[in-house]
Amino acid sequence: MSLKRGLPPLLLSIVLLASLGPAATRASHHGQPGIGSFIDCNRPVTPPRCTSVGNDSIHYVYIAPSVPNGIAWAVRRTMTHDYGPTDLVMIVQKQITPRTDVIVRAGNYGQNGAAGWVWCPPSSPQGHNEHGDRWCRKQRLFFNLNPTYAVFFGDRASRDYMACHELGHTIGLHHWGNPPISDGPARPTCMQPDVPNGPTDLHRWDKEDINMYYPRP
Q1: Are the beta carbons of 128 and 91 closer than 8 angstroms?
Q2: pLDDT of residue 32
Q3: Exposure of 4 by Cβ count < 10 A (0-12 exposed, 13-18 middle, 19+ buried)?
Q4: Do 120 and 41 form a contact (C-beta atoms < 8 A)?
Q5: What is the distance between the alpha carbons of residues 97 and 135, in angstroms, rounded to a whole number?
Q6: Which of 15, 27, 74, 210 could form a disulfide with 159 if both were Cys (CB 3.0 to 4.6 A apart)?
C-alpha cells in the first residue's frame, strides 16, 4: 500500500487483506470483496481488530463523548448520505442499549499502526447468521487521534472518508484494492484502504451489495 504526503506505511483500518488468503464473499456480484465477516477477533494483535456483520437490517450507532465534533458529524453524515439510500437502516442512539450495534470512540491510542479500526470484544453479544458470518452487537469503532495519524482527520474530506470506511467495516464491507482481490470499481469508493483526504462515499456496487445482504426490514 502507498500513502499520500510521504507517510510511512500504516494499517488504516482493521486488516491487510493481503495476509488473509481468499476472502469470504457473502454478498458480491461485481468481482469485488463484498460483504462478510473475517479474521478471528481473539488474535493476539495490537490493536485487536476484526470484521463482523450486523445481526439484522437495522444498525444502531452510539457516538461516545470522546469523539470530537468534527468526526462525530462525519459519522452522522455518512450514516445519512452514504448508507441512508440503502436498504440498511442506520440510527444514531443517545445512549448504549441492548440494541446497540456500534460504539464509536476516539482517543490517543499511540503509534499502533492504525488510524481507525473495528473490533468485536469477546464480551459482546455475537453469533453466526444463515450465511455463516459472525454477527456482533456492541462492536467497537476506534479513531486514533495520535498526531502520527493527523492527516486522516485534518479536514472534512479526510474525516468523511474515515467515517464511511470504518462504519463500512461494522457491517462487513471489505476493502477494495487489496490482494488477492485487486480489481476495483470504475469510480473511487471509501472502502479503498489508506487514502487520506478521500474518496468520501460508497460506490454504487457497495450499495447494491448492502441491499443484497441487508434487505429492508
Answers
A1: no
A2: 60
A3: exposed
A4: yes
A5: 17
A6: 74
- DSSP structural state of residue 190: T
Say what the pLDDT of residue 8 is.
Answer: 45
Amino acid at 129: N
- Tens digit of pLDDT for each residue in 26-75? 565 665 658 999 999 999 999 999 999 999 999 999 999 999 999 999 99
Question: Rounded to 10 degrees, what is the CA torsion of 211, 40, 21, 36?
Answer: -10
User: 56: left (phi > 0), else alpha (psi -120 to 50), else beta?
Assistant: beta
Are 26 and 131 a contacting pair, CB within 8 Å? yes
C-alpha 76/C-alpha 56 separation (Å) is 20
Q: What is the DSSP letter of 185?
A: -
Q: Give pTM, 2 decimals.
A: 0.85
Cβ-proximal residues to 131 (8 Å cutoff; 6+ apart), any chain? 26, 36, 53, 213
